[in-house]
Amino acid sequence: MLDRRIKFRHIQAFVEIVRQRSLKGAAEKLLLTQPAISRTLAELEEIAGVPLMARGRGGVSLTPPGEVLLSYARMSLAALEQGFRGLDRAGLGAPRQLRIGALPSVAARLMPEVAARLSAMDADLQLTIADGAHDQLIEALKAASLDVVIGRLGPPETMKGLSFTQLYLEEVAMVVRPGHPLLATPDLRLIVDWPVIYPPPQAAIRPMVERLLIAEGVAEPGRRIETVSGAFARVHVLRSDAVWIISAGVVAGDVAEGRLARWPVPTTGTEGPVGLMARTDDAPRRERQLLDLAIAGALETLALG
């Protein structure tokens, strides 16, 4: 039987501390003082009878019992939010909504076709598309701020409580401005002589890029800018001699239309699955069925999969 002492504020604070990785960050997010959120966590640990978090100089980390509780706490918050959304739709006639998180390669390549198909199937569907880094979108999905995320499969530890349906494989590309001297010499070892736009640690393609360089005996570029900003990278590449290492889908349109050129070096081994991620506890909805149909049609049109 559920302990009557457990309140909503305990679960909300616990999940937010994990999300922010600190008591201070969680307190600011929930508009509380740090002592107040510390007391709330202490109350929850007293009710649980075990420590749920370990405090250290680097912030807080989950204990094994905390790991167990976290997945259920997230599901509880997500279920409650869904319940209130259902009340809104039933009582106020709220419009149908679908909130999709898309990694940059998906937003640039797949989503325009998917959006067009969704509009044709249901003109009243309110579609929200958010792009960003993998970890940001996954956190938003787990917090029920997004309904689904489409992107590369992340590390196993980030996928707890989520399902993954593979859609297609995507490789890493290296692109430069048209007329770049490297286009005449497809030798990956030369990359160390040029500035590079490099995926940051949180980028889903970072491990693939690191493995490629190791396999080819190439040192990690010293002159590099780490970013996931496609807007910045496009402008910077055109104005400089930089090599941009990025998922092929992000620049497929630029390469096809001649705005950027792909450096023809082999990138074998960088292929990774791109798929649709959803919460395992999410109830089936008509909007999700429409999305599945739109994605299937888009994959056929774009010759992916």
UniProtKB/TrEMBL annotation:
Is Coiled coil one of the keywords UniProt gives this record?
no
User: Looking at the record's lineage, which domain of life comes first?
Assistant: Bacteria
Q: Which UniProt keywords apply?
A: DNA-binding, Transcription, Transcription regulation
* All residue ranges annotated as the HTH lysR-type domain in the record: 6-63
Name of the protein described by the UniProt record: Pca operon transcription factor PcaQ
**Would the keyword GTP-binding be found if you checked this record's keyword annotation?**
no
What family, per the record?
A: Belongs to the LysR transcriptional regulatory family.
